[in-house]
Specification:
Layout: H1 2-26, H2 30-33, H3 46-55, H4 61-77, H5 84-88
Length: 89
């Protein structure tokens, strides 16, 4: 039972850290995370998500607010993360 809960928490964390860089890309923040000049993504979505999550505590408010708003919208639209009963309320 405990293992199942830990696996579920890990799955949620992975899903959210994969969703965060899509928000960053839509706001153009992915350019700050790139170390090269290539136009395409060179990392998986998890790595930039982890990098953005690591930057959140020290991120200036004028950059943080749009990220959190867009992230909230993305999580609300992601029907996979929201149980069916919660969406009906």
């Amino acid at each position: 039972m405990r293992r199942d809960r830990l696996l579920m928490i890990s799955a949620f964390a992975t899903a959210l850290l994969t969703l965060l860089p899509t928000v960053g890309e839509s706001l153009g923040m992915d350019r700050m995370l790139k170390s090269n000049t290539s136009k395409t993504r060179t990392h998986s979505l998890f790595r930039p998500g982890y990098m953005l999550y690591d930057l959140i505590p020290n991120m200036p408010e004028h950059r943080l607010v749009p990220v959190m708003r867009r992230f909230d919208e993305s999580v609300s639209k992601a029907a996979v993360l929201i149980p069916e009963t919660a969406r009906l309320k």
